[in-house]
């Protein structure tokens, strides 16, 4: 039987205790739980749009004119959270092979894509 190692970092929103892990390492593969645009310090969705919630660096303020859409700000934060979890697991975002994207509003699809393409190199992960 293979072993499972939970991954936990304070740099991403905490999982619900006893319910799920931020990620699990099993047989050398990292499986991440869903990530949302929550600020790990406050536990609240970051202000702004889908782009910002997908990944926001707390040290680098977002230009409110560029990020007037709430879904964009959330998208940036989401990818930032995922990046921290992957780093805690000993890997990085460049090694991701599959991404599932869930949007509450399909009107955010183009904004989400404009943020998404910033985080992977020439070989993008498979995506649903």
Structure notes:
The protein is an alpha+beta fold and 128 residues long. It has a single domain (4-123), classed as 60s Ribosomal Protein L30, Chain: A. It is built from three helices and five strands. The protein has a three-stranded antiparallel sheet, covered by helices on one side. Helix 2 (70-88) runs parallel beside helix 3. It is globular and about 40 Å long. Residues 55-68 have low confidence and may be disordered.
Summarize the structure.
Helix content is 25%, strand content 12%.
Descriptive terms for the model:
single chain; 25% helix; 60s Ribosomal Protein L30, Chain: A; deaminase activity; alpha+beta; 128 residues; 3 helices; YjgF/YER057c/UK114
